[in-house]
């Protein structure tokens, strides 16, 4: 069931509503490095896909969500994290604080359209033929 609400004089479905997310949550999606807690990751992925997400689905959904976030905010493409770049909670806090000054504390995201999902799936089928493709490399967890 889709619920419609009046937003700025137009009826819009709940599915198409933008929701604000903290920058570290968005960066978790765009970089594949866990910079927030898992609950926030589930929340953003559920919002973007319009479905409740299970743990085993994250490696499948994350590449599409990452592409969508980077298409929405191309300036975040400059944020690149190397393995081992952040080694402590304090380094993580400092890193995120600097980025918040540059990009803002929170950014809005609308759910991914079904057309965008379909186009990504079609491109992914082609990418699977690439021998370097592997779902296990899509998310790297930051451990403390």
Write the layout of secondary structure elements.
Layout: E1 4-7, E2 10-13, E3 19-22, H1 23-31, H2 38-49, H3 58-72, H4 89-103, E4 106-109, H5 114-127
Antiparallel strand pairs: 1-2, 3-4
Helix pairs in contact: 1-2, 1-3, 2-3
Descriptive report:
With 144 residues, this protein is mainly alpha-helical. It is built from five helices and four strands. It is 45% helix and 11% strand. The strands form two sheets. Strands 1-2 form a two-stranded antiparallel ribbon. Strand 1 and strand 2 (10-13) form a beta hairpin. The radius of gyration is 16 Å and the shape is globular. The N and C termini lie far apart (41 Å).
The strands making up the biggest β-sheet line up spatially as: 1-2
Basic shape: globular
Gap between N and C termini: 41 Å
What profile does the largest beta sheet have? 2 strands, antiparallel
Count of individual domains: 1
Low-confidence regions: 1-12, 131-144
Count of helix runs? 5
Helix/strand/pairing category? mainly alpha
Secondary-structure element sequence? Answer: EEEHHHHEH
């Amino acid at each position: 069931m889709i619920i419609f609400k009046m937003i700025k004089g137009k009826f819009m479905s709940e599915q198409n509503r933008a929701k604000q997310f903290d920058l570290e949550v968005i960066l978790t999606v765009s970089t594949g490095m866990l910079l927030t807690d898992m609950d926030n990751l589930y929340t953003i992925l559920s919002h973007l896909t319009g479905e409740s997400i299970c743990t085993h689905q994250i490696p499948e959904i994350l590449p599409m969500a990452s592409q969508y976030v980077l298409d929405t905010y191309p300036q975040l493409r400059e944020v690149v994290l190397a393995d081992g770049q952040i080694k402590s909670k304090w380094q993580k806090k400092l890193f995120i604080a600097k980025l918040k000054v540059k990009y803002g504390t929170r950014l809005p995201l609308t759910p991914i359209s079904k057309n965008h999902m379909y186009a990504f799936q079609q491109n992914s089928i082609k990418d699977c033929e690439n021998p370097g493709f592997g779902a296990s490399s899509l998310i790297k967890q930051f451990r403390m």
